[in-house]
Design a protein that fits this description.
heterodimer; A: alpha+beta; globular; B: Rieske Iron-sulfur Protein; Naphthalene 1,2-dioxygenase Alpha Subunit, Chain A, domain 1; 2 domains; 4-stranded antiparallel beta sheet; 21 strands; about 30% helix
């Protein structure tokens, strides 16, 4: 087995960011495994707190992630219609652990969102569990841990981070 | 009664024409906000926190309430306290952490040390003060004028002459009881606070939190989501009433097709879930009889305690409080409340239910936030379009949950306190 390089991981994460910024959400969803989870914890719990007994902002299993995408593509998802303009920046990519086909990756992220003349900034650490498959990387878990004090400035997390 | 500021009529009721109008000035005018601070936030009982947030002696959380910096603590005797977070010496905040456990607080400016009940423990250079100075009232961390709890919900009041908390809550106690009675062991705030903000007037969230009228359009995608899987629903129509509970408190109480962790089963929760919920329901019947057990288990409650505490016992329970920082900007804290003795599966289902609808990352609340902000934007046109219409259901003897009687109850009290009408 050849070791995965950071550049390969970065290419994948940069592509993921582009899909989000281009609102190609159904395509973005195909990057995830069938047992995937997507989390945005509240900011007064530990970054690795379990979602089963802590209130998060977002704790989606694969089914709810599909539903989130479905909702966001509708005109009746009022908070995101018209779609906000976003720019997902991904940096400080590190491969934290490797075991077989599984990879733990961390990133630093900054996401800008503009809508109705207001710009908000989301920033923090992205924790990914990636799987190497014959079709490239898949995301088994994505956890976006905000470094801000709650969502006091942003008010909502209506886009995908 | 102190002299009221002079406002033109801001809430105008015409019973003959069945119109109830609220001036949009109340959402934009700094003078109105100043009057609210004096007549509402300085006088009403305000939610501080839930007793379950401080399980152990020495536990504390710091929190802003109506502009004040408050320490909510459990002292070495196990007693709860609401302290003003300002050193008696020169005024610095003595506790700068948001939560924790401590034997004492030390002011980092000159080093004065306080117990968790506010008593002064030690003053560096005490020999430069008169004998016994640290035991004097002026050396203590000051307590908030009034501090009382009801069924685990702790409130404070800055007015020393206010009526008791129970008198103030009045008709709302019945509804707090219906929530507190979910568990005979007790209710607890689940870890994790949703802290967010809305660029809109704070009273718009009061209205929105028990507005049954906006669901079909504002929450179309949430209803789509529920309908997308047949096992997410039971065949029960959305139907119910609204009640004015006095003192500005009001409630919408109704049946709904979604699952309730206490205790309305939906097929998505499986056979094991069905057995758990049946056991929860049976225990409610043993404790309270069928009628009250049904009410606790199967009706939903969107409760507003005047002026700014929301307890929504719906597909999960949210406790939510919020304060204005400007006429067009509020800060919100929201928590999940749950039975202490709930098992891990039911807790998981509860939090899933919560996040599907509620909070700034849910499938519904973000659209509420958007609606409130778009209202606030619309108020730029106040010179020409000056009135909000809250007349729905005025002629009905028993208003429906999706009429606007609950908002009128709120606005009547607001008007009495702020305008003096």
């Amino acid at each position: 087995m050849t070791r995965v390089t950071r550049q390969e991981v970065e290419d994948f994460l940069f592509m993921e960011a582009d899909l989000l910024d281009e609102w190609r959400l159904p395509e973005w969803l195909t990057l995830f495994t069938e047992d995937a989870h997507y989390y945005v914890p509240s900011t007064d719990v530990a970054h690795d707190a379990p979602p089963d007994n802590n209130l998060f902002y977002v704790a989606d299993d694969r089914y709810r992630l599909e539903q989130r995408v479905k909702r966001l593509m509708k005109r009746t998802a009022h908070v995101e219609f018209p779609h906000s303009k976003t720019r997902h920046l991904v940096s400080n990519v590190r491969i934290r652990a490797e075991s077989g086909d599984d990879l733990d990756v961390s990133t630093a992220f900054i996401t800008y969102r503009t809508n109705h003349g207001t710009t908000n900034v989301y920033f923090g650490t992205g924790y990914y569990k990636l799987v190497v498959t014959s079709g490239g990387f898949k995301i088994r878990e994505k956890r976006a841990v905000l470094a801000s004090e709650g969502l006091r400035d942003q008010g909502r997390v209506s886009i995908i981070l | 009664m102190q002299a009221y500021r002079k406002f033109e009529p801001l809430v105008v009721v015409d019973k003959t024409r069945q119109t109830y109008n609220v001036s949009r000035r109340v959402f934009v005018d700094p003078e109105v906000l100043a009057a609210e601070q004096e007549e509402i936030f300085e006088r009403c009982w305000l939610y501080l926190g839930h007793e379950s947030e401080l399980p152990k002696m020495g536990d504390f959380v710091t929190r802003r309430v109506a502009g004040r910096q408050i320490i909510f603590s459990r002292d070495a005797q196990g007693k709860l306290n609401a302290l003003l977070n300002a050193c008696p010496h020169r005024g610095a905040m003595v506790c700068r952490e948001r939560q924790g456990n401590a034997k004492s607080f030390q002011c980092f400016y000159h080093g004065w040390i306080f117990a968790l009940d506010g008593a002064c423990r030690d003053i560096p250079g005490a020999d430069s003060y008169p004998e016994g100075f640290k035991d004097k009232p002026e050396a203590r961390l000051q307590s908030v004028a009034r501090f009382e709890s009801y069924r685990g919900f702790a409130f404070l009041c800055f007015d020393p002459d206010a009526v008791s908390l129970e008198t103030y809550l009045g008709g709302a106690k019945e509804y707090i009881d219906l929530v507190a009675d979910h568990s005979e062991v007790g209710m607890t705030i689940v870890g994790g606070t949703q802290e967010y903000s809305i660029k809109a007037n704070w009273k718009l969230l009061c209205e929105n939190s028990f507005d049954g009228y906006h669901a079909a359009t504002n929450h179309a995608t949430y209803l789509d989501y529920l309908k997308d899987r047949a096992d997410n629903l039971v065949p029960i129509a959305l139907n119910g009433i609204a009640r004015d509970l006095g003192n500005g408190h009001a409630v919408a109480e109704y049946r709904a097709p979604w699952g309730r962790p206490v205790a309305q089963w939906i097929p998505a929760w499986g056979e094991e879930g069905k057995q758990d919920l049946e056991a929860i329901y049976q225990r409610l019947v043993e404790r309270f009889g069928v009628e009250r057990a049904d009410r606790i288990a199967r009706t939903n409650r969107n409760l507003l305690i005047f002026p700014n505490l929301v307890i929504n016992d719906i597909m999960a329970i949210t406790v939510r409080s919020f304060y204005p920082v400007a006429p067009d900007h509020m800060l919100i804290n929201a928590w999940a409340l749950a039975p202490v003795d709930e098992n891990a599966h039911r807790r998981h289902d509860r939090l899933t239910n919560f996040l599907e609808f509620l909070g700034p990352g849910g499938f519904a609340t973000p659209d509420d936030i958007e609606a409130l902000e778009q209202c606030q934007r619309g108020y730029a046109n106040n010179k020409e379009t000056c009135w909000n219409n809250l007349s729905k259901g005025m002629a009905k003897e028993v208003p429906s949950y999706d009429d606007e009687a609950q908002m009128r109850a709120y606005w009547n009290e607001w008007n009495r306190r702020v305008v003096g009408a």
